[in-house]
Amino acid sequence: MNALRNKVQLIGNLGNDPEIINLESGKMLAKFSIATNENYKNAQGEKVTDTQWHNIVAWGSLATLAEKYLQKGKEIAIEGKLTTRSWEDKEGVKRYTTEVVCNELLMLGK
């Protein structure tokens, strides 16, 4: 069951072109967001679409792939793990963000 711990699989559309960061260490990082949609009918029988946004980070060869092939609107499937980071903003307030660290990426559609 260890293989199932902290595992995330998502299929969605890119909300923006990947942001590519080349670190001083020589490593490459790609940051982007994807939207996943869930459709359902509410109590009144109306169709409702619930959109959730997910922040994704990809390192190394996956970052290179993202830089070369991914662009806003493209449908992709990703697999990875959830991580939470914290930092202090300019006012000294502690902030948190949760991201999916991608370890597999599959381009879907055309």
TrEMBL record:
Q: Which SUPFAM superfamilies match?
A: Nucleic acid-binding proteins (SSF50249)
Task: Cite a single Pfam family from the UniProt record.
Answer: SSB
Q: What processes in GO biological process is this protein linked to?
A: DNA replication
User: Per its record, what are the GO molecular function terms?
Assistant: single-stranded DNA binding
- Can you name a GO cellular component term? nucleoid
What keywords would UniProt list here?
DNA-binding
Q: Which InterPro entries match?
A: NA-bd_OB-fold (IPR012340), Primosome_PriB/ssb (IPR000424), ssDNA-bd (IPR011344)
PROSITE patterns in the record, alphabetically?
Answer: SSB
> How does this polypeptide assemble, per the annotation?
Homotetramer.
What is this protein identified as?
Answer: Single-stranded DNA-binding protein
